[in-house]
Amino acid sequence: MMRYRLLGRTGLRVSELFLGAMTYWSLTPEVRRIFDVYADAGGNVVDTASMYGESESVVGELLEGRRDRFVLATKYTGTRDRTDLNAGGNHRKNLVKSLEQSLRRLRTDYIDLFWVHVWDRHTPIEETMRALDDVVRSGKVLYVGMSDAPAWLVSRANTLAEERGWTPFAGLQVPYSLLRRDVERELLPMAEALGVSVAAWGTLERGILSGRYNQPGAAASRVSPDSLTERELTMGRAVAEVAGELGVTASQVALAWMMRRGVHPIVGASSVEQLKDNLGASGVTLPEEAVRRLESAVEFQLGFPRDFIEEVDRSPDIYGDAIHLLDGR
Length: 329
Description:
The protein is α/β, with parallel strands linked by helices. It has a single domain (4-298), classed as TIM Barrel. Helix content is 38%, strand content 14%. It has twelve helices and ten strands. The strands form two sheets. It has an eight-stranded parallel barrel with strand order 3-4-5-6-7-8-9-10, surrounded by five helices. Helix 1 packs parallel to helix 9, helix 4 (125-137) crosses helix 5 and helix 7 (230-246) crosses helix 8 (250-260). The longest helix has 17 residues, at 230-246. It is globular and about 55 Å long.
């Protein structure tokens, strides 16, 4: 049974798994079945972007007659015209023109969640946040989010929004998986502190965490089995072992681990069977011992300053001899 969470500090209800439409470049019967299965399971968030080819147009067709039942998310930043320097980036001109293009393609008059696709270091964040607030006030966008940016930038953006009465980021989109946990250093703690929802892409690492390449002689798909590192193979085996013990699939274990941390996986299934498998992660509960095994299967270090701060967190040399009596955060 699909469960729901609130998007950031808003009242918008979003399903725990998002449907990624990046590879939906044409409306095939299989794509339509995938969308229907996701909707029937209770999923209500579909995520696309202006630079995903014909994906927005396909999503627009899929939503025909049921638009308001879904939280429609798309992104801007990517160029609309490679010959025009102002056709890409996070400045006001590209934001407005990209939004107009997305609305036409998606056959709608509003976007539920409008993501900034990636940090544009050439545009002041003040300009981006004010322009986003303007399109929210116009009614063309309801909520905004940030994808692929450093924690300090998102923190600054939401602080500016709070101080100036602008619309803050309600969502953060990042790459995250058992193999790629960098966001645990700064981005996830920042999101928790600011009350920002986190959605993750690359959750199954091109199939490595799905068990696809665990067997000798596995056929190449998104990657060649011969190109996998020992670290990747080790993590794949650990996920498969836990899955075997629990009687579920490797993909479900990898996704359940992420949902356990309060993160929304973006699943981009290429078949109905694959989607049904991913949706099954909603019913998987990972024992604490299994979580410890998964998180220790391959090396991961938080790095400075997180590891140093955690090391001294209960130090009497820093906080005094009674620190062990403090019930902190």
